[in-house]
Amino acid sequence: MDIENILKSFKQPEDKLFIQKVLDQAYLCLKNHIYTFTDFIDMHQYGQVMKIINQLPSDLSYQCFGGYDNAERKMIGFSPFYLSLEVNDFPIQALEFQNRSATHYKMSHRDYLGVIIKTGIDRSKIGDILVKNDGAIVFLNQSISSFIQFNVTKVGKCAVQLKPLDLDKISIPKPKVKEIHASVASLRVDALLSSGFSISRGKAVQFIKRQKVFKNWILVENPAENVQINDILTLRGLGRIKLVYIGNKTRKNRIHVTIYRYV
After folding, report:
1. What digits encode the pLDDT tens for the residues 17-28?
2. Considering the entire predicted model, what is its pTM?
């Protein structure tokens, strides 16, 4: 594994540091013949890892998992090729935050994340946060689960009770979506972003240039990149959309599409 050459392909110091940590886990896996895991990574970091994943030794296997299917924040797990890495091997704990106040408080993702960060926990130890009507499900690194259960009793003004959940028994809240029917000039990323988020194509291109757009958790660098059925586009700050249907062309040669926007 030519670590020096791998790191040369990354210009930003923070990207080099992150990739170095990932390579350290890969090296420990091969050296000690054990499973190793990164912390939770975001979409940008996931894209950086995918750039170099084929340069890792062939006797190294990897898997990504965030506690449930289609999680946005994931861990990368490494294993020797002769060991089978299962999702239950990942050091991930789900905690259910149950609101206990008599007064109904509407809590947001920011509220739950904020109360955990205030305990001194690094963001990399926290996975996705799924907000429900009466609380939330928070995915954490197992190493901090007991600490959070002991130290968090309120979220804002709302008293909460924390309960560990088995990953294979979690009922993931069904995401709310807005169904959008549109006609687009092409199936390019910028065209789908324009229809899905009600912005101009020029604005969509600006977001892509500012590295705010991801397709299936991989950074989009070319506005002309094509989108296929079930591809998920994420625009940081605005949310996600999913292309679910491609129909016939109109008389003006535009394409009928159906898009889900997650709300």
Report:
1. 999 999 999 999
2. 0.85
